[in-house]
Amino acid sequence: QPDLTLEEAQVAKLDYVCRKLRLRPGESVVEAGCGWGALALHMARQYGVRVKAFNLSREQLAYARKQEGLTVSLSDFITEPFAGAPYDRLYSIGALEHVRPPELESLYQKMYDALTPGGLAVHQFFSYGSDPCPISVAVLELFFPGSMLSVHRSHVEAAEAAGFRVAHDS
User: Fold this and answer.
1) CB atoms within 10 A of CB 151
2) Following CA atoms 140, 141, 143, 146 in sequence, which dihedral angle do they give, to the nearest 10 degrees?
3) Where does the chain have alpha helices with state H?
4) Half-sphere exposure of residue 68, counting CA atoms within 13 Å on the CB side?
5) What is the pTM of this model?
6) How far apart are CA 95 and CA 102, in angstroms?
7) Chain segment 75-102, per-residue pLDDT in tens
8) Of the candidates 21, 20, 74, 13, which has an alpha carbon nearest to the alpha carbon of residue 38?
9) Which of 79, 92, 135, 147, by CA, is between 20 and 30 Å from 103?
10) What is the pLDDT, as a whole number, of residue 44?
């Protein structure tokens, strides 16, 4: 919507993810890779859910921990268990780009196992549409150091193998 301010557009984006998760007050939610904690904080304050977030950045962790209503752990969501499981909802925004392709299968299984029966997961991430050519890998590393994009079908296959039913993919 072109008439929104930047702040209004940011809130609309946060609400979009919350609607996808179909949040209900009192639910438990886990976030894999919370960044500065904006979405987790929005969910806790506006939707009345309990959010447990995981992050690797000490600076982001320190900031997020100052926000009332957030529980943030300095841990690797890829390799460490989701403490406090099971959760009703699970999400990650912009974090799966940092997961190495060989780690996808075990990560999606861990995510699936961390959810209550019937729980929902939402992930937003960049991926390759097909096998990347070497120059695209080099350009990605140049502009986004540390990113480890996978081929999109690898995400879908890993999620489905873990037990997820992919209801929306865009």
Assistant:
1) 16
2) 110
3) 6-21, 38-47, 58-65, 104-113, 134-143, 152-162
4) 1
5) 0.85
6) 16
7) 889 988 888 899 999 999 989 988 888 9
8) 13
9) 135
10) 92
Tell me how many helices (H) and strands (E) the chain has: 6, 5
Rounded-to-integer distance, Cα 156 and Cα 51, Å: 25
Identity of the residue numbered 96: L
Each residue's pLDDT tens digit, 34-90:
888 889 999 999 999 999 888 888 888 788 777 766 777 878 899 888 888 999 999
| Distance separating alpha carbons of residues 93 and 125, to the nearest angstrom | 6
Q: How far apart are CA 32 and CA 104, in angstroms?
A: 13
Distance CA 64, CA 71 (A): 8
pLDDT band at 106 (very low <50, low <70, confident <90, very high): very high
Q: How far apart are CA 18 and CA 139, in angstroms?
A: 33
Report the distance separating Cα 136 and Cα 128, nearest Å.
9
Give the DSSP H/E element, type plus range, for residue 67: none
